[in-house]
Amino acid sequence: MVPPLAVALLVSAAVYAFFLDGLMKRYLENLGTRLNGAVVETKSFKTSLLSGTVEIEGIQIAHHVQPMKNLLEIEKIKISFAVAPIFQKKLIVEDMKVEGIRYGTERLYSGLMPRGLTTGDRGPGLIDRVATGFFAEIRNDLSDNPLRHLARLSTGIDLNSKMDAVRGKLQTNARLIQHRKQLKSLMEKWERQGNVLTSSSWLADKKREAQSPGPNREKLRQEVAAEIKRLQEMWAPYAKELSVFTEETSDIDTILEQDIALVQRTLGLPRTDFTDLTRLMLGPKLLNYLERLAYWIDLSRRRMPQGHRQGQVVEVAQERSRGTSIHFGKMSTYPAFLLKHGTFASTANEAEKRGEVSGFFDAITSDPPIYGKPARVEIDADFPATEVRGAKIGFDVDHTGESTHEKFTFAAEALPLRGFVLYEAPDVKVSLARGRLRVEFEASFDENRVQAKWVGKVENAGYDIVSPYKQTEQVLREILEPVYEFTVDGRVKGTFDDLDLQITSEMGKRLAEGIRREFRHPLAAVDDNLRRTLIDQVDSLRQEVFQHFRELRARVVTVIDKNMSELAAIEATLSAPPSRAVSSAPKKKK
Amino acid sequence: MLFYPLFSFFDLVSFETRRWQICGALVVGLWLGLTPWLTLHWMAFLLAALLLRFNPLAVLASFLIFNATSWLLEPAFHAVGMQLLTTDALKRLWSGIYHAPVLTFLRINNSVVMGSLVVALVLTPLLYLSSTWIYTRHGARLFAWFQGSTFWLNWSRTELHRAYARSKR
Description:
The complex is a heterodimer of chains A (590) and B (169).
Chain A: H1 4-36, E1 40-41, E2 44-48, E3 53-62, E4 70-81, E5 91-103, H2 129-132, H3 136-141, H4 150-155, H5 159-166, H6 171-193, H7 200-211, H8 217-249, H9 252-267, H10 278-303, E6 308-310, E7 313-319, E8 324-329, E9 337-346, E10 356-365, H11 368-371, E11 375-383, E12 388-398, E13 405-416, E14 420-424, E15 429-446, E16 449-466, H12 470-480, E17 486-495, E18 498-505, H13 506-575
Parallel strand pairs in A: 5-9
Antiparallel strand pairs in A: 1-3, 2-3, 3-4, 4-5, 6-7, 7-8, 9-10, 10-11, 11-12, 12-13, 13-15, 14-15, 15-16, 16-17, 17-18
Chain B: H1 4-14, H2 19-34, H3 40-51, H4 56-85, H5 91-99, H6 111-147, H7 150-156, H8 159-168
Helix pairs in contact in B: 2-3, 2-4, 2-6, 4-6
């Protein structure tokens, strides 16, 4: 019988010989796909543990947004690693060569991430948009683009049918109807109370009694005071209602303006008071690029985290899918993973779409505080087949200290802009049919703060404008066609949930000016029509309400005032010293 | 004849019935169930389960029970593990193990692995001693109860069991 241990060793050897490469290939493809957010696949994967080498061929990294395209295709990656640290569960790559790089090649099948595979099995990071919702406010701010509803002005706007839809939401009407109802009910209430006013005969009697001296003056005074108080109490609620009415109707014009603005928004009328549309047009796209960059920054912070130094020992904690792993670093020890040095080497071949790429990457490690050196990547690239010239990428990641610092730079002499969409909406799509961009971009990230600036120049621009409305298409074409060269510059500053984005270009200014010029009169006509319609609707109701108000005032206030003044006169008479009785008998002559 | 390989396999896995084989198997199942896979000590216990003469059915049953429990206890493992890994007095020990060849594959620098290791170490003597006591004092009674249970009575009436009984004659 074969000893079990021998069987186990035999099985292990067979697994290593036949299955290890396949298992490693699968693992790396899986990991790459999850990090990239789109399929990463390899043609072959060969390891040699004895000599410490790995060769990977035919790597395709799919584009995360255009699934039928590869972001990059790499012919071969050669890795040499130290064997002894494997027994300490450490992977130390001494050298790595990346050869034969292609950009933007076509795929045979979709590179969308397979179902069931998620980009992250950990909690969200500090700058994870999905979790924190940053950029939401600035995106809302950028959504009010006048190009959205330009076509409406071209085809004419049927105000009446649109007004019907929004009539129920108008505050002016609602307010006036409410006031009318209140005034009617006040009037009814007054009519019910009309018979409890002071009667004229009672007033006449009291007046007469006040004028003649007698022992009951005090009693009379009290009666008059009580009557005054009764009238005042009766008048008080009416006074309050009328005062509230006066106050509330004083801002009817303001509410009317708000209603006009509401109707304008509902109709989707574009604003033409912009002086530069660049921010609205290119802002969303720029935010997408910034978001993508933030994703890689966040990934670097999770996979290459900061540490905590205590004397000679450095600890780096990494969240895993199960628990937290703490890496203990000491003087002259290696981290768990280290890529000491790598180079890019690719020679151009236009037929094969291969680019001229040179560059290096240093100190890519899972535990930067333990290794003590910041990671650095520098690449120079030209891809003649896709007309990319003079591209330079730089990426510095410093997580060795107490806080995180990352810096990204990108520059290019020429980037093709064929089919670059400037703006897309149901009514109109504006894109660059051709163009070349020269750009310099720089961004730095410090903890949750970001600062970026860029300058770009677009040359030889040709536009592709598509709209179901020919007038809109024609107008935009007339505005944009002369703009064949323009610069774009801008900056971003702030924290991820409070970003300040500034961007300007000659194209945006000309577009804003052109739209204002072309659509000023139609917009003014629509606005005028809208105001007139609304004011007409409101005016008749307003007049009715004020008519009720005037009637109520006339009836209530007049009567109350008359009674009060007569009672006041009686009170004044009572307050004066009692005079001799007024007699109709003639005075005796002395 | 169709079922003979199945009967042979059943005999093979139920042959080890001595006390240390059953109780040891429960402990091995405990370690396999609680410990995260592919750590050094998990592999060691797997080899022990395959190569040493523990009762495989008992190992399997114990593994299933403790594996199910380990998912529920994971937050507790994490808490215990973090407490130990961040204790200053023990950091030199953890650092030494982390950098030592082979020992680093224990992966005790992970909080869940460390926590499960501690819990398994605590439970091992308890499980072994208690299972030994139950086996010694009540083993025969439990076996008799099982043989008298409705499940066993129904099972013994099936064709499959009758075929197995015939194959033993």
